[in-house]
Amino acid sequence: MSKTLPLFVLCLLLGACASERVVLLPSTDGSPGKVIVRDAAGERVLDQPYAATARRLGINRPTVTEAAQVEVRYGETLRALPPRPTSYTVYFETGTDTMTPASAQAFVGVKREIAERPAVEVMVIGHTDRVGSPAENDPLSRQRAELVRDQLVAEGVPAEKLEVAGRGEREPLVPTADDVDEPRNRRVEISIR
Q1: In Å, what is the CA distance from 24 to each residue of 43, 62, 71, 129?
Q2: What is the pTM of this model?
Q3: Which of 36, 46, 57, 179 is geometrically suited to a Cys-Cys bond with 51, CB 3.0 to 4.6 A?
Q4: pLDDT tens figures, 121-170
Q5: Which of 186, 193, 180 lies closest to 148 in space, CA to CA?
Q6: Which residues belong to CATH 3.30.1330.60 in the chain?
Q7: CA nearest to 114, candidates 147, 148, 81, 141
């Protein structure tokens, strides 16, 4: 009994010293983020980059954290994480599966980013504007997405890493009435994760 008591006391002491830490990291695009941390006393909102809380004995306490401290403490772990997902949009000429010249040029960066990711998954979703009927736009949106997929496969992206979908005119970026020619709706969204 006396041998197990010190071990039990040690476990209690270690448990009492253990803590959890939450640090809100800045987003890569500069947009604000927010994390809500709850405990028995209520909730604490972290809404500034490097805002932090440490949980000890079931209570969250605010802590001061800076970028340099995060790098020292978590840098190796953060560098081991996969890259954050990114999205690109390429646009098309009216009624066709031909990319606009600016989108064709920007597509080079999309291919480069996909090639640099070690374990990539890509979702390619085609869209149309509301010119024409849904019966025409559904296949056209899919055709646009398949064109992008085929170009990525030609660049060496494994086909099994690509998912393709066509949404037709159902998810406009800019809502319009029927038969309105809106260039921002004639697009393919490429989500890379």
Answers
A1: 15, 12, 13, 39
A2: 0.68
A3: 46
A4: 999 999 999 999 999 999 999 999 999 999 999 988 889 999 999 999 99
A5: 186
A6: 86-192
A7: 148
